[in-house]
Design a protein that fits this description.
mainly alpha, about 10% strand
Length: about 160
């Protein structure tokens, strides 16, 4: 979270002339509820099931750039599906940067806690072993969105 998945993904899709899909947005549209409300009303397990179902559908399509929520890859089946159906990029930032970029965003249910920075550190500690399995890991703290998108497009086009 706060790594730039949506901003960079949108630009990568534009450069590749692919469709951009923000999984959280699709889920919100399908459920006619915001993610924060899905978590509150139906729980995280329900939300993760929605993610899994959507990911299975997206994996059958071509020419997509997909922005997944940070927890999608933490499910072994999802991770396998992602790796087998496309190129997986893990966009990374420090916990402090993630906090700075997300601290005013109340739409992140997982951060609606008394100490969001501690929660981010906890999530990264748990998730890093999954993120490390991505095909490519890119730190998004030092470069512009344009530079990062160009780097990703170059990798996609040239390996």
């Amino acid at each position: 979270m706060g790594a730039g998945k949506t901003s960079i993904g949108r630009l990568v899709a534009k450069k590749l002339r692919h469709e951009f899909v923000e999984m959280d947005t699709v889920i919100e549209e399908q459920e006619t509820l915001k993610i924060v409300d899905i978590f509150a009303e139906k729980g995280e397990t329900y939300f993760r099931d929605l993610e899994k179902k959507l990911l299975k559908e997206l994996a059958t399509r071509n020419n997509l750039v997909v922005s997944c929520g940070g927890g999608v890859i933490c499910d072994e089946q999802n991770l396998k599906l992602l790796k087998n159906s496309g190129i997986v990029f893990s966009l990374t930032v420090s916990a402090e940067t993630a906090y700075e970029r997300t601290k005013k965003d109340v739409s992140r249910p997982i951060l609606n806690v008394s100490d969001p920075l501690a929660k981010i550190r906890e999530l990264l500690a748990v998730r890093n072993k999954y993120y490390a399995q991505a095909h490519y890991k890119i730190n998004t703290e030092e470069n512009s969105i344009e530079e990062l998108a160009d780097k990703i497009v170059n990798i996609i086009n040239n390996g």
